[in-house]
Structure formats: C-alpha cells, structure tokens
Amino acid sequence: MSYVKLEDIWKEYESKGKKVQVLRGLNLDIEKGEFVVILGPSGEGKTTILKIIAGLLRQDKGHVYLRGKIVDDLPPKDRNVAMVPQNYALYPFMSVYDNIAFPLKIAHVPKDEIKKKVEEVARMLRIDDLLDRKPSQLSGGQMQRVAIARALVKGADIILMDEPLSNLDAQVRVLAREELKQLQRSLKPTIIYVTHDQIEALSLASKVAILHEGVIQAYGDPMEIYREPNNAWVAKFLGNPPMNVLKGEIKDSSIIIGSTKIELPTKFRSIVKEGQKVLVGIRPEDLYLNDNGPLEGSVEMVEDLGPYSIIHVKIEDETIRVIEKSITRRERGEKVKLSIDTSKIVLFDQESEKNLMLLQSKVESNE
Length: 367
Ligand SMILES: Nc1ncnc2c1ncn2[C@@H]1O[C@H](COP(=O)(O)OP(=O)(O)OP(=O)(O)O)[C@@H](O)[C@H]1O
Prior knowledge:
Pfam families: ABC_tran (PF00005), OB_MalK (PF17912)
CATH superfamily of the largest domain: P-loop containing nucleotide triphosphate hydrolases
Number of domains: 2
Keywords: ATP-binding, Cell membrane, Membrane, Nucleotide-binding, Sugar transport, Translocase, Transport
Number of strands: 20
Structural class: alpha+beta
Largest sheet: 6 strands, mixed
Strand order of the largest sheet: 6-7-8-3-9-10
CATH topology of the largest domain: Rossmann fold
Protein name: ATP-binding cassette domain-containing protein
Bound molecules: adenosine-5'-triphosphate
Organism: Sulfurisphaera ohwakuensis
Shape: elongated
Low-confidence stretches: none
Strand content: 25-35%
Distance between the termini: 25 Å
GO molecular function: ABC-type transporter activity; ATP binding; ATP hydrolysis activity
Helix content: 25-40%
C-alpha cells in the first residue's frame, strides 16, 4: 500500500501578472519506510511538492493521500508530517533540549512527558550528551540530527527534507549523508528528500524520482535509471558527464551515425525497423580511445580530474565526451579513434525521445 501518494497534482503560481505552471499532472507513489529523493534542476518545483505534502500550500487540482487517506482538507498540524528545512531552522538562543522540546511545548504536552520524549529521541539519535549545548556549539552533522530529533519527537513518521545538506562543506556533507542513511535504515521513517545534487540523490535514495516540466520523468532504482533512462532528457540529465546522445539511423542491421557504421546489438533486432531514425545513447565510460575504433574525431578539450580525464571529442558536427583512465596525455586537435561497448548502448526514438527497449517491454507486459 502506498504511504504517500500524489495524484494528478497541478500547481500554478502568479507573480506580477505572469502565470507559471509549475506542476502539470504530477503522480508519485511512495511506500512506507522508503527513502525517496526527488531530483531535478533548480526551479522545477521540488520545494512546491514538499509544501503541498505538508499542507503548507494547496494544489490547484489533484489529491494528496497520506497513510491511505485523502488529506486535501487537513491543515498541516493534523497531517503528522515533519519538515526539515534547508537551514535546519534551529533557534540559536535555545539549548538543544529546548529546540527538540519546542513542538511539544506549543502543543501543551505536560513537562514530565516532554522530558521523557526528548530524552528518548536524543538517545536514539546519539545526541543525549549534547542536550545542554547551543546550536552554535554543534557540528553540521549534529545540527542535522537535532533537526531530525525535533521532527521525530512529534511522532511524525513521514519526514520531508529540503536540501538539508546544502549548507555544509564538502567533507562534512559526506559524513552527514552517511549518518542520514544509517539513521533511516535503523529508524525506518518514510523520507522524501529533495535536491538538485545528483551524487546526493544516487547515494541516498532507495528510489529516485526525476522531476522535469512539472511531472516525474523517471521513478525507481537509481542505478537502473542510470543504465536505462526512460527518455533522452533523463539520459542527458543524469550522470556527470552525462550520456552522449547522437542522431542515428537503422540500416542493414547496423546503426549509422554520420558516416560511421556500428553493428546493431542483437537485443535491438526485434525492436527497430529498417530506416528508423533513432537517438543513440552512449555513456562516457563506455567509450574507449582505441586505434581500431570505428568512430573517428579530434580532441576538442581535455578536463584532467586526477584519477581520470574527460576528453571532448568532435566527431563530424557533434561533440561527445569520453572518460579516459589512462595517463596518456591528449593534445587539442589530436586525431583519435573511439570504440564503443555496444552492449551498453541505449536507443531512443528520435521523435518521441522515449527509450525503445522500455517501450517494447511495456507493450509486452500489456499483451
Ligand atoms: N510564491 C510564489 N510565487 C510565484 N512564483 C513562485 C512562488 N514560489 C515558487 N515560485 C516559482 O515556482 C518555481 C518552482 O519553485 P520551487 O521553489 O518549488 O522550485 P525548486 O525546484 O525547489 O527550486 P530550487 O532547487 O532552486 O530550490 C520557480 O520558478 C519559482 O520561482
């Protein structure tokens, strides 16, 4: 059963007489105990989604269900959902104890019960020895735990997190990420976490939901989406550097890219038609600089990143990116040949930009 469900959600904002349609029929189904990361470029409506789930904002159309029940008309305080904002919003002059106790105090919970609950949640999060400190005396990871403790103390088992790690420096962020992952594993709340940081999404999520143009473009296991993106936009968004997507055509059991002919992998034989126009997706790590390769081009730019380099190679009128692990230095303008691990190729329809393999399996499962 779904624990958090968004059904056909529409949301439009109006600012200075201009209307912006942010969400356009968005659907999302989240099970209990899942760690879902909503990933999307800045300004696509991630925060808007969290506010709609929390009840801080009303959708124009569609329904929100929590724990199997429709909650469209429930105010935030009755939804039993906790939101951890970007800056943790801890009160600087209050101790950690008072920060955690705050939501219970305003709910007029008796003092001794507050004490019991705060101590219990603090023990669980291993911050029981920090209760007398002020937020300024905490590390980034500890601040995060206090913010989560304040969310948990109310008994909310659905936690919404809005880029909570974005203010931490890179090293602390890795630790805080690891901590959050462990915490979710042991306490099992349902977490909905939004970010535009891919690494964060891939490393935290049990499921990732990719948001673009007001709908979820892809939803599922992060590595599966990485390997088989459902459309060319997702392919070009996910990964750093992202997937190369080149125009091609199917001819005589081959894929023709410009003037290069590549053998069509057998798995695609029953899926494509002679003469079909396709988009060919190849990840930068599946291309190799190799004297026997079928693709020919010249080096346009080299990004040396330590353990590997990203080589930009111009092939006819397209530039593709290749990850090279060898320490051979490549010069700008150098002529190179590339071979492809064809078993990793992904094909999209040129018009709809949809993944042809996934379209086929959808057709088969409906038959
Ligand atoms: N109250 C508002 N009035 C008008 N426009 C708004 C309002 N709130 C948000 N928007 C616009 O709606 C779009 C989505 O905003 P939202 O904050 O949900 O995006 P986001 O994906 O969370 O972005 P970011 O990653 O930058 O935080 C943006 O273009 C934003 O400018």
